Amino acid sequence: MRISFERWGGRTVLAERHASAPFGAVKANYPDGSGIPEVQITNPSGGTLGGDRLGAEVHLAPGSPATVLTQAANKAYRGVEASQKAVFRVGEDAFLEYLPHHLIPYAGSNYSQETTFHLAPDATLLAWDAFSAGRVARGERFAFDRLRARTGISRDGRTEAMDGLDLAGGDERFGGYSYTAAVYILAAGDLGPLAEELHDLLAGLSGALASASAPAPGLCVARILTDGAPELYRALNGVRALVRESFGFPAPAREVA
C-alpha cells in the first residue's frame, strides 16, 4: 500500500493511493471542519496469515496534517512467520497521527513488525503501537511462538528513538496485565511540561499502570499496561486529546475504539 498527502485548498487531500490485497480501498474522510483527513487502513481478510509479507509507505508533503488509523485490531494467525513493514515520511511543518489498533497474536503465531518514521526538522508526530497477551478471553496468554516489533524514528537523518520488543511465548511478560502500549510524541521544542501532564493523566487511570517522560529534547514517550481493552483505549484516547490540545490542534472528532 502506498499513500501520500498534500495540502490543497485549505485542507489535506490524498495525492496518491495504491493498495493491493490484502489491503482494502483507501479513502479520506473529514469528520470535522478542520481539514484534517482520517484515512482508515483496512484488511478485508480479517488478519495477517502465516507467510504474509505486508508493506506500507505513507508520505506527508510539507504543511499537511493527517490521521492514519486501522479498521480494527489486527490478528496474527497461527503459521509460519508473517511480517509487516511500514515507512512514514513526514515533511516540514506536517503533522502525522498514526493510531493503529492493537495486535492480537493467536496461539502458534509468529509475527514481526517494523515501523519507521522519517521526520523533517519541524514535523510533528503522534504515534502508538499496542499488543495484547493473546486471545485472553479464551485463556490464550502468551501462547504465540514469537512476537517481534521494532519502531525507529529519525529527524533530519538523525536517530531520535529506537524501541521494540522480541518475545517468545510461554512465560508471563506483562506482569499480570493483558495489554501493553507505547506512545511516541515528537515536536520542536521542550516536551517536558507535556510529559508531566501526561504522567498526571495516566497515573489517575484505574486498571492501568502507565507513565510518561521526556527522555530527550523534542521527544516524549508514554508506556501503558492495562487489564483490558477498554482501559487501554481510555488511556490512548486521553493521551491523544491532551497532545492535540498542547499542539493547538482541534480536539479529536471521535475516539479510537
Judged by helices, strands and strand pairing, the structural class is mainly beta
Strand arrangement across the biggest beta sheet: 3-4-6-9-12-15-17-16
Order of helices and strands: EEEEEEEEEEEEEEEHEEH
Helical proportion?
10-25%
**How many separate domains make up the residues?**
1
Largest sheet: 8 strands, mixed
Q: How much of the sequence is in beta strands?
A: over 45%
The rounded Rg comes to 18 Å
- Through-space gap between termini: 23 Å
- Name the average pLDDT: 96
Characterise the protein shown here.
The protein is mainly β and 257 residues long. The protein has one domain (2-187). It is built from two helices and 17 strands. The strands form three sheets. The protein has an eight-stranded mixed sheet with strand order 3-4-6-9-12-15-17-16. It has a seven-stranded mixed sheet with strand order 2-1-5-8-11-13-14, with no helix packed on it. Strand 1 and strand 2 (11-18) form a beta hairpin. Helix 1 (192-203) packs antiparallel against helix 2. The longest helix is centred in the last third of the chain and has 19 residues, at 229-247. The mean pLDDT is 96.
Write the layout of secondary structure elements.
Blueprint: E1 2-8, E2 11-18, E3 28-29, E4 38-41, E5 53-60, E6 65-70, E7 74-76, E8 82-90, E9 95-99, E10 103-105, E11 110-119, E12 124-132, E13 146-155, E14 158-168, E15 179-186, H1 192-203, E16 208-216, E17 219-226, H2 229-247
Parallel strand pairs: 1-5, 4-6, 5-8, 6-9, 7-10, 8-11, 9-12, 11-13
Antiparallel strand pairs: 1-2, 3-4, 12-15, 13-14, 15-17, 16-17
Helix pairs in contact: 1-2
